[in-house]
Automatic annotation (TrEMBL):
UniProt entry keywords in alphabetical sequence: Cell membrane, Endoplasmic reticulum, Glycoprotein, Hydrolase, Lipid degradation, Lipid metabolism, Membrane, Microsome, Signal-anchor, Transmembrane, Transmembrane helix
BP GO annotations: lipid catabolic process
Name of the protein in its database record: Neutral cholesterol ester hydrolase 1
Keyword Membrane (UniProt): yes
Gene3D superfamilies on file: alpha/beta hydrolase
Reaction equation(s) it catalyzes: a cholesterol ester + H2O = cholesterol + a fatty acid + H(+); 1-O-hexadecyl-2-acetyl-sn-glycerol + H2O = 1-O-hexadecyl-sn-glycerol + acetate + H(+); cholesteryl (9Z-octadecenoate) + H2O = cholesterol + (9Z)-octadecenoate + H(+); a 1-O-alkyl-2-acetyl-sn-glycerol + H2O = a 1-O-alkyl-sn-glycerol + acetate + H(+)
PANTHER family listed in its UniProt record: AB HYDROLASE SUPERFAMILY PROTEIN C4A8.06C, NEUTRAL CHOLESTEROL ESTER HYDROLASE 1
Organism of derivation: Salarias fasciatus
Gene expressing this chain: LOC115394610
Catalytic residue positions: S169, D328, H358
MF GO annotations: acetylalkylglycerol acetylhydrolase activity
InterPro entries listed in its UniProt record: AB_hydrolase_3, AB_hydrolase_fold, Arylacetamide_deacetylase, GDXG_lipolytic_enzyme
Xref: Pfam families: Abhydrolase_3
Membrane protein topology class: Single-pass type II membrane protein
Amino acid sequence: MRLRLAGVVLLAAAAYYIYLPLPSGVCEPWKLMLLDAVFRPTLLAVRLGLCHRIHLLNRLVCLVEDVDARSSATLQPKGGKKLKRAVLYYHGGGWALGSMRMTSYDYICRTLAEELDAVVMSVDYRLVPEAVFPDQYEDAMAAARAFLSEEVCQRYGIDPERTCVSGDSAGGNLAAAVSQGLALDDAQKVKFKIQALIYPVLQTLDFHTSSYQQNQAVPILHRHIMIRFWLQYLGGDSSLEPVLLANNHSALDEPAVTAAMRSRVSWTALLPPTGRGRRFEPLVQKTGTPGVVGRLPALTDVRAAPLLAESEVLSRTPKAYVMTCEFDVLRDDGLMYARRLRDAGIDVTNEHLVDGFHGCMVYSQLPMLSGVGQRSLASYARWLDQNL
Ligand SMILES: *[C@@H]1O[C@H](CO)[C@@H](O)[C@H](O)[C@H]1NC(C)=O
């Protein structure tokens, strides 16, 4: 009797721990709740600022993910002397977590290699806390230059005219920044043909876009976690978290944030006033916390925040695929970038997943298999096949 009672109490506690009110329309809410329950301790630790423990956290993520021990980063299709198409991939994880050796990323890259009969190179760039901006960006650039070099193309039989730079989340940020960096480098003769950005993180100025407001508490990427990831990447103090959360760093009395920069992240101007996500009011502070950008100039550095780039720069970047998810704080980052690329004359495909959540493509295989995750990977692979 007492045992049965204990069982009921335990069950109730587990249900209480796992249950989370989620917006209607999100794909398979119970799976998302379970995922959140698995990752909540990690996210809580990040929130508590245990960033010096981030190796531990990363080990936890990798444990859940069953990292495989292969060290080779290059996936090569078998057979044939014909030159291959090729994809350079940067994994996500807030510039702090994850690894190309995670089984989920390995699965994504293997799927691309097989379905496209392409060479896929996955990059293990340095992570927070050992590395902060611009280290991750510079690692990503170095990998891109090596990938496009004559030596590497010859060694792996890559067709230098048919290459793609790609990544998800923070990896999408790196892929966008690398596309811009190479576009501006006249000495770089071989360039990427296309860029494919999967729910990328792209801007630092507004943490009250409609998607940040709508999805601030939707797993697995809560708004305060994204802000914490930004501060750690840019080398900012965690005491700035409430300042950024209040949009005080980009208040109108901050001279380091120019009107031109504001216009590049203005979701009310760049996005159509329709859809469920657009019911929110913008938050623009008249007076904020003085000098934040002065103390942390990386906040307005285009290599960290590619959405802040001038249109002229965007116009020189490759043809683009931008995946966005409805239930993602970063949705509007991606939608604004797609719009600005298009305005700059770039051919853009925006795949918007109406039931998608941040990170869903990582869950495109068992045991975490998510329906929208599978669809996202299929859509991504299809676009690459048709455009690379
Ligand atoms: C934001 O700035 C205003 C005006 O300077 C200030 O009163 C408020 O305390 C600031 N909020 C935060 C969270 O720093």
